[in-house]
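hiii, so i know i said id send this last week but things got crazy w the move. better late than never?? heres the sequnce for the chain we talked about at the cafe, plus the structure i predicted for it. fair warning i was half asleep when i ran it
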Amino acid sequence: MKDFKYSNNPDLNFKLNNLPSNPGVYIYKNREGDIIYIGKAKVLKSRIRSYFLNAGKHQQFKTEILLKHIANIEYIITDSELEALLLESNLIKKHKPKYNIDLKDDKSYPYIKFTKELFPRIEITRKVVDDGSKYYGPYTNVKSLRELLRSLKNIYKIRNCSLSITKESIENKKHRLCLDYHIGNCGGCCNGIVDSKFYTERAKDIISFITANDKTLISRLKSDMNEASKKLEFEKAASFRDQIAALDTYLVKQKVDNSSTDSIDYIAISQEDNDSCCVIFKVRNGRVIARNNYFLKGVYRKSEPVVLTEFVKLYYNRTTDYPDKIFISSIPDELEILEEWLSSLKGKKLSIKSPKIGEKNKMVFLTKKNAELLLNDYKLEKLKKDYTPRSLNSLKRDLNLSILPRVIECFDISHFAGRETVASMVVFKDAKPYKSGYRKFKIKSVEGIDDFASMREVVERRYSRVKNENLQKPDLIVIDGGKGQLSSAKHILDSLGLDIKVIGLAKRLEEVFLPGESEPEFIPRTSSAIKLLQSIRDEAHRFAITFHRNLREKEQVKSLLDDIKGIGPAKRKLLLDHFNSVEEISKLPVKELVRVKGITEDLAKSIVETLRGSGEF
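okay and structure toks below
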């Protein structure tokens, strides 16, 4: 079946045509590899494709902007949409993607927290931390949760303050009774009015109600309501009725998940030929917080237990984040030794198991499924990397190169009548610009017009550093110029002892020169090789011209203002900070300029006359 064209980016289009139908989380990245958006989907294939199928039809302008910056897509499959939702929330917290700020509500679900204190507090929190407190949740209905807590506090007189109450603070009467005590919402524990053991028992009743659906409290409240009704205390009876209703709502609607403080790593691998992908799902406090994946080479004919053993050793020897338990797709070799080693690293017992049934087994299966998908993506990426543009093969053939010129560096010199001489170096990888490798040089040792000497300087500066710092050498160096510039570059490379293929590309007839050859190398004008060389040379020329122009503009601004008597570095900075440019200053009336501190009326007149008389504006 023919692939559908979702995008003009062939790599992106390939991924869009090969997405899974599982629920999961999708991650959009830009050209620099930064995560710009994270979302979740019930069906990854449908959700991700919908962005591109509806391009130009979106209601939100920000989504249209997002689409323009997507260069790569990654995804993590899950067992359910709910798991995808929780994973999405955790990943958004971790990475804070640019386009999730407005497009997604990055709030986590709240928990009930019971603090570990002399007089425990009960409160709502969105963060679960290992501070000795007990957490219950998460809750999706925040309104119901608040009503529940209000009822529980009214019934049990649980304090709502954040005071640090100790035996010493009570004895020294450090705290005064607050309004909650006077209106009956607190038992006055800060002044020792209520006993700590009694208070703690009441707190345990609340825990019992939340975790075990203990209906003893409701039975007691019903008894109190009936008693109040008999006494014709209808307002009090109504209050009991409302409390019962809130607790009944909680028992019916809320699902309690005692958030485990155990930290668990789920590990699984997928192998094919000589490649292997290992995936780790990191679960902390009952939630998946990250998926890490690693690719191993040299695993041909090695069994899964052997590869897992090697991976566990490599991974946990490089981290300090040790889980309490590891659940793994196959029992590794040397299990007892591994457990003993990991336990010594963690400082307490750490177990490794391969579950065969239950939820843990499902999680390991999900981890393995992710490993299989990632390995498939990895192998497809390898195929694309092994593919070489036709122009590189043509260049290798036409220049009789021993290796494919995947990395090419090109140099160009630029100056204005021998002044402000600069040089540029651009880098092409696999026939495409590699802009993070671009470099600019100010020529320091040459005065006047001397392109040969300028080329010697820049080539020496560049490749002295490559040699001294053991940097990657290019497969081919292109010099913008003829035999003279080429000879200058070759002389420096020889003096440095570097064996790098170098050629010159003369502008006039687009002739290619090789070192030591008096005549240009014949390359057919229709060859893709010559077109590639021209595009590289043109890019180096553009980069050099832009750099030189920027330097000239800066120098021009500096000289125009510095030529004015009374303008030094400090006043020049004040003027440029106050106004946008020298051109804007030249158009301003005197009365505007005198508003700048230190600019007198006479100096302002001198500034205006000098700039307007320069003929530059």
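btw The mean pLDDT is 82. thought thatd interest u
miss u guys!!
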